[in-house]
Amino acid sequence: MKKPLPAPSPAPPTEKEQLHPRNPHRAPYDFPALSQATPELAAFVQPNKFGNLSIDFANPLAVKALNKALLRQFYGIGFWDIPKGYLCPPIPGRADYVHYLADLLAESNGGTLPPGEDISVLDVGVGANCIYPIIGRREYGWHFVGSDVDGVAVRAAQQIEAANPALAGAIEARLQPVRTRIFDGLIQAGEVFDMTMCNPPFHASAAEAAAGAHRKVTGLGTNLGTGRGPRPALNFGGQHNELWCEGGEAGFIRRMVQESGRRPTSCYWYTTLVSKKETLPGVYRALQTAGATEVKTIAMAQGQKKSRFVAWTFLKPQQRENWLNTRWQQPI
To answer: Which UniProt keywords apply (predicted)?
Structure first.
């Protein structure tokens, strides 16, 4: 039967209030507990300039070790690894997207979350890290298809799924055979999804991606010691298809909208992150041209960073009612 969304747990006074209320990462990292559960993290934990335990977030090895520890402590993931040079994303922000998607789904279903096993989600660009499917499965029990144009990333995601009994049968990593396509050639005949999600490539060229990485690392600096010595080029990694594509974020989302419009009944809510607010007007115009019947923009924030995702549907009221009755309503 359907169940209400879980209530947020009480958070300490130092909570990161900008994160979603159900996000378990609102509190400061408990580095002693994380290090105890994942000993390899301990080598990177030191007092920062304020005397608090932390890591150097400009060090890719430290960030990777922290991710392993967080996935183990909060999501029960015993094995997690990524190939060298692949994207190692911050988990709190990824979790926010998942929790806001749950809110969107519940809102579409009269305020209650449909049964987890019945919800199918397509993660466009799952990456070698497989973070969104891990969180979505462990938090809400959803079933995932994760697509990627990179065969190495697909195999890495498959390895993560196979190595963790808690993910068994819940995540299908699928290769998108045409690098310039998103849904075309990937969504199979008769296949439907309750939601799609995507963190599109941000930059329009390799040079732009490199400049952005330099600014990020310069901004991070170091929170340990004096900050002397060489800094890594990119603390979170990323292959070119993860960081940039022709047309950048705006071009990628425009293609996504166009392809979604060719399969209006394949998904209830198509969604994508939009990092640049300047991208939004073009997205809205593309959605109007494609014939979307409803568009929502959901704001999110992590620290100083403001972000959002856009959700759209092509379903008419009767089609939505049929979707609810056939896919989400359970027999009494």
So the answer is: Cytoplasm, Methyltransferase, rRNA processing, S-adenosyl-L-methionine, Transferase
- First CA to last CA across the chain, in angstroms? 8
Token output for 273: 């992150």
pTM of the model: 0.85
Three state DSSP letters for the chain: CCEECCCCCCCCCCCCCCCCCCCCCCCCCCHHHHHHHCHHHHHHCEECCCCCEECCCCCHHHHHHHHHHHHHHHHCCCCCCCCCCCCCCCHHHHHHHHHHHHHHHHHCCCCEECCHHHCEEEEECCCCCCHHHHHHHHHHCCEEEEEECCHHHHHHHHHHHHHCHHHCCCEEEEECCCCCCCCCCCCCCCCCEEEEEECCCCECCHHHHHHHHHHHHHHHCCCCCCCCCCCCCCCCCCCHHHHECCCHHHHHHHHHHHHHHCCCCCEEEEEEECCCHHHHHHHHHHHHHHCCCEEEEEEEEECCEEEEEEEEECCCHHHHHHHHHHHHCCCC
